[in-house]
Fold this sequence. Notes:
Blueprint: E1 3-9, H1 12-23, E2 31-33, E3 40-48, H2 54-61, E4 69-81, E5 84-93, H3 96-110, E6 124-130, H4 138-143, E7 148-154, E8 156-165, E9 168-178
Antiparallel strand pairs: 1-3, 1-8, 2-6, 4-5, 4-7, 5-6, 8-9
Amino acid sequence: MPRLFLGLELPASVKAQLLRVAGETSGLEGARWQSAGQLHLTLVFLGEVADARLPEVVTSLEGLSLPMFDLDVCSLGCFGSASAPHNLWAGIEPEEPLAALHHELRTRLEGIGFAFESRRFRPHITLARFHRRRGSVEALLGNWRGSEFGAFPAEAVSLFQSKLRPDGSEYSVIERFPLNRPVRGEEG
């Protein structure tokens, strides 16, 4: 059964800026940095889905009713304490259109029988994961405070498949679901 999730793909220019963080951080204990091919923004994690359900998932996501929007990738943060983090991430602004998109995707998938955790959606791009021995990211967070990593338009939601590999997950896009283009005269 494939492991699936919905997310946003990032342009190469934003990925290059995010990879600077790893490139300028040598010897951070316990960090397993994400590669360019692993950088994305997760919207909804589906988990393992039977192959027979894939057409139903695709059909449920067709015709998304939300408009396209622009996002800024800025700031760094972590899950866990800065002295012993679990994940290092880049933040996204604004969060409101992402929360609305997350809600619509979950609602559509719940309509075909998927169940999800009730924890709050916190949009982010994972840059590094930490295991067992963890180095502090306090200085790193301070050094990158106020940094901007680029902007991009959210034009489509991608259905990703995740394959677990010894060197980290490998992601491939199965399908893309476009968001609506703004009607002329309604742009920002």
